[in-house]
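Record type: ASSEMBLY
Status: queued
Input:
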Amino acid sequence: MFAAESLVKTLLAQGVEVCFTNPGTSEMHMVAALDRNPEMHSVLCLFEGVASGAADGYARMSGKPACTLLHLGPGLANGLANFHNAKRAKVPVVNIVGDHARDHLQLDAPLTSDIVGYCSPVSRWIGTVCEPSDVSSMAVEAVQQSYGPEPGVASLILPADCAWSDQEPDVIKGADMPKRAVVSAARIAEVASQIKAAKNPVLYLGDLATQEAGIFTAGRIASALGCRVFMETFATRMSRGSSRFSAQRLSYFGESALEDMKDCDLLVIAGSKAPVSFFAYPGVGSELTPPGAEVCMLADAAMDTVQALSDLADMLQAPANPELAPRASAPDLDRDQPLNPGFVGLSLLRHMQDGSVICDDATTSGMGVYPWLENGPDHEWLCLTGGAIGMGMPLAVGAALACSDKQVFALCGDGAAAYTCQALWTQAREKQNIINVVFANHSYLILNFELARVGAGDPGPAAQSMLDLSNPKIDWVALGNGFGVPSVSTKTAGEFDDALVHAMATGGPHLIVAEI
Amino acid sequence: MFAAESLVKTLLAQGVEVCFTNPGTSEMHMVAALDRNPEMHSVLCLFEGVASGAADGYARMSGKPACTLLHLGPGLANGLANFHNAKRAKVPVVNIVGDHARDHLQLDAPLTSDIVGYCSPVSRWIGTVCEPSDVSSMAVEAVQQSYGPEPGVASLILPADCAWSDQEPDVIKGADMPKRAVVSAARIAEVASQIKAAKNPVLYLGDLATQEAGIFTAGRIASALGCRVFMETFATRMSRGSSRFSAQRLSYFGESALEDMKDCDLLVIAGSKAPVSFFAYPGVGSELTPPGAEVCMLADAAMDTVQALSDLADMLQAPANPELAPRASAPDLDRDQPLNPGFVGLSLLRHMQDGSVICDDATTSGMGVYPWLENGPDHEWLCLTGGAIGMGMPLAVGAALACSDKQVFALCGDGAAAYTCQALWTQAREKQNIINVVFANHSYLILNFELARVGAGDPGPAAQSMLDLSNPKIDWVALGNGFGVPSVSTKTAGEFDDALVHAMATGGPHLIVAEI
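Status: finished
Output:
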């Protein structure tokens, strides 16, 4: 048996069941091993940024790692931006990178590169297989490391000769995975008394605390205290909808975020750290802890945040269930209005089913959709955790694989969609229920705002041109169809609404261009 | 004056005149500086891999660096694969990466990352601006470092606050650039006597030695000795055509390469190092120096290879001009034949003008085009130096900018074209004379060969599926048109020939799908 086959069987035994891949010559024995082990669902991606983003989306929705199989340093390099998002999302990923055979490496052939160097900025663990006999034990270690205590990307570098080596089968069965540490009862009691002593405590949530169980418990605490609850602006996964407690999303711009938390005297943090602004601006501070507020860390992302919140709620004698807002009802649709992100939100509110998943890679437009779905159908809203645009369509590939019974939406700015539009091809190949909405404002719109905010002066024609995507205008219907995804352009609220209803009824992947 | 403006003016004073960019918030003062200095031609790219590939193409054709302006670690990460190709091409590039303001960096905002870590695998020099007053001197150092002695990528990390700082103008005028070292007369004499003593010397050329002046002189030596001359399989730039000495390209597969150089007893290397196979295969050696041959290093890529070859030719009393083959004449075109790469080569031979530039990112198909143009119209053939596919269309963007009076061709496999098809948009925006040929075999064809060669067994359905791009077939006409480039599909030799003639006559960018 090739060592590569022991590796694949060992991954399967640890519960790793999906491989997003773009292989090359040095990974051919891994390809053969995947071929012989069809229980591992292998998903071909046309570009590595699709594979890494899909692994992120899969982990966000399943809670467990997929593996990626990438070709040497440059293949890995193409996946790094979405691994950056996965790192910031704190999700488990097992990133397998093929390398040249060990004897070949020293010869510095054209594709030789510093793979450890490429891995380092995004990986919480890096292992290089030095002997074929180590393949399976290192695979187990990679899966364990991906789980944490704070989950992340575990990178396993696999020289071709360690994959092709013929050996006795060496398959390691299910191993123990690390668990998050529990916050002590004493610490819970301390936090509870700090909260009771505060006038205006505010809960600030990230990681697991914004997801179903966490947000439920945070809602119990909020109902007990009558306090404000904020989620990170770009949380990994926000569980939202009318059957969930409705926490607020902290505003993107720093001055608005400080206004959100005005008068707060105690910032209680669960699954995050003290908030900071996304970018720096001349003469403006970047720290967003409200002035005068004390910071109280209940649990960081390496801890069992959900348990900590639950213990805290019990100690505060919070009600068993949070107070919920009534289900939002959709206002009538003014069909002839020119389309804007709000109308997209309204259509989603009108037609979306409970349990849907929304991947948000639409910087400005996503902010316009978001409020409409508060207290609407239950859904999971996945944010651009690391700010590396080009995440939406790949993330949807992984999310749809993790929950094939659910409707997945990818909301993409046209600037972001242009980064990794190759994901559409994988959506078509895998016949995934993904509706991609491309907001075509033909501009890096957020940068128009930022250019003014940083005080770089009035933009002249060259600066404007560098933020402008209208010369030429990208024909997204052509691109979507070109990659095999039925695509349509919409310009009014009614056209979008009809297109959405049609796409949901037909199933499979669709692309709707929202001309805004 | 913003420090960023001093930086741009300083770059201009060093002869850096083109900036390939995809900026974000942290680069807005650089955008403003570019706006105020329109002598710097700023070219917007929809994806950073287009910017890095374009900088490579520009340098290969102009011999001098362009700069790139990329957004933080993830933006840089997206450019790394084509920087890997540029590193292997040994061309100068000044890679400017914006970073967060210095105070902001420690707060670990979502886009914070280890930019030095990302830069390291591809850069020959990395500098981080620590004070605004250092901006201009570090820009000069970056340009100098990009030139070498062995040229490469010089990365300059620019914190946003060092760009936005208001200061006295600090523009440094033209500085001295490093020159390549000259090979001593004594060493030339040694090499000459080694060559004279050898029975079957072979010249092996890379870097500048495969370009106009180098290949001319190598041809003089070959004419004097009657010896074989080989170029690296993936040389940076091969100057070819009937007015150039015709050197052979070393075969891709190792066994063929050894056959090429059979009976060689002295391998004389200029601008390269001893040849090795691209990949390793079980039980096969990777070193391609012919058995029993001595290796004689005339000049590596850090030396003045052209001068060394010229001195050697003189010492060998070589004729003043190389022997040239007669101009190749094109056979008649059998218009109704199903298209294959050879017919693309034939059409190029029939219609291409002297001085054209060909960017080859078509792994298997490029090999079919290549032989047709030997002794055809003069042209520059740019290879996939680092093996990171997705180079062709971006490289063409840069090459066309460096020589706007020339016709540029990008030969792309469909697998490779899918990586960085966003380059088409920049071609349309800049109205470049680029004819993109996409060879649509709907497969990673080379991997079908490699799977067999590495002995991974008969491919089953899952393995075949991972090398197959036909489900769904990409509609390249739709993609090209979607990005604003007139596109057409061709299936016969005659259809391709007509499409080529039409594209050359109309000018601007075109995409021709070669269905093979």
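Annotation: Chain B has three domains: 3-164, 185-315, 341-515.
Annotation: The CA atoms of residues 358 and 409 of chain B lie 5 Å apart.
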